[in-house]
Amino acid sequence: MSDFQTEKDLVRRYYAALDSAKGRESAAVLHEYCDAALLWRGVHPFHEMTGPDDVAAKFWAPLKDALSSIQRRMDIFFAGRNEMDGGASVWVASMGHLMGLFDRPWLGIAPTGKLAMLRYAAFHRVEGGRITETALFIDIPHLMMQAGLSPFPPQTAAHLVQPGPLTHDGLLFEAQPEDEGSQTLAAINAMVTDLGQWQSGLPLEEELARSWHDDMLWWGPAGIGATYTIARYAKQHSAPFRAGFADRSKTKHLCRMAEGHFGGFFGWPNFTARATGGFMGMPATGQAGAFRVVDIYRRAGDKLAENWVFIDLLHFWNTQGVDVLGRMEAIAPPAP
User: What pLDDT is stored for residue 198 in this prediction?
Assistant: First the structure.
């Protein structure tokens, strides 16, 4: 069985304390559970921060002020040894939504006074009983769309509040069979290594079928959307994405791990590519941009069945000279 229970218990206690803390109390929680030199990575406009005080003041306190009565609705939770450093470090990952009442402005987005769901995925490195690194990806454009804004042109796939696994078994609070995690990591590696560089030489749908079930579910970020089956995924995301970019770099991850039937990775960035063909209804810029991405997977048998994807699109488009968040701040509707 996998032996990550100490690390998982720490993160669960951290979440319980953080979720119940008022905005200004967040710093004390971070100091209790995180290292003084905590390295925290977040999406645009937060980027990298160091230390509990900075993270609490710039991220958690403003978010908790804006989304009142925040509730964590977690769909996936697992841990594992990081393949990218030879298994030297243990990380704990989770994914779901932070739900609250959008009562005050946040990042220039006007509140709705209504229920809002903020998609999130988090990776925490645990060492010596402390969290030493965190990567927290949130889908800010998804929140903007719930607030009545249109941060991007119409997307190719569906806009949804995204559910957890079809199997409803993503919360791996207990130890899992080690061989199951090894099989999941092998399936992820096959997709990344064999197919992830767009160089297989096969027709796209045949290439995808090597790693994915025919009825795959791809839960993409707002601006791209969610899609279902290999054929629709190819049409609604994979083919347009490949057509929109050239000079894709090799894949680089900071953490890649798996436990049980679930696994995932993140990079900072995962890869770079040059925008040559237009993407997401935006014109080509000819400029290279960095893609910071989180992927969470569910394996069924020897192939991947579901994929939850977080892309820091605000950061990517900012590198292309498009300040999506700033533009939305200027046209946001008045608060109710």
Answer: 65
We find that the CATH architecture of domain 178-326 is Roll (3.10)
Work out whether strand 303-311 and strand 212-219 pair parallel, antiparallel, or are unpaired.
Answer: parallel
Q: Are 36 and 55 in contact (CB under 8 A)?
A: no
Q: What is the CATH number of domain 5-146?
A: 3.10.450.50
Query: Where exactly does CATH 3.10.450.50 map onto the chain?
Result: 5-146, 178-326
Structure tokens belonging to residue 26: 């967040």
> What DSSP designation does 48 have?
E
How far is 247 from 244, CA to CA, in rounded Å? Answer: 11
Q: Return the closest-CA partner of residue 83 out of 283, 255, 229.
A: 255
Counting beta carbons within 10 angstroms of the beta carbon of residue 22, is it exposed (0 to 12), middle (13 to 18) or buried (19 or more)? exposed
Encoded tokens for 189: 């590696």
Q: Inform me whether the pLDDT recorded for 331 exceeds 90.
A: no
The chain-wide mean pLDDT, for the chain, equals 94
- Between CA 89 and CA 154 the distance in angstroms is 41
119 versus 201: the higher-pLDDT residue is: 119
Instruction: Output the six-digit token pair for 243.
Output: 């057509």
Residue matched to tokens 């220039």 = 108
Q: Cα–Cα distance between 14 and 25 in angstroms, integer?
A: 13
Residues with Cβ within 8 Å of 104's Cβ and at least 6 positions away in sequence, in order, are: 65, 66, 68, 111
Residue 335 has pLDDT above 60, yes or no: no
Q: pLDDT of 241-259, one tens digit each? A: 999 999 989 889 999 999 9
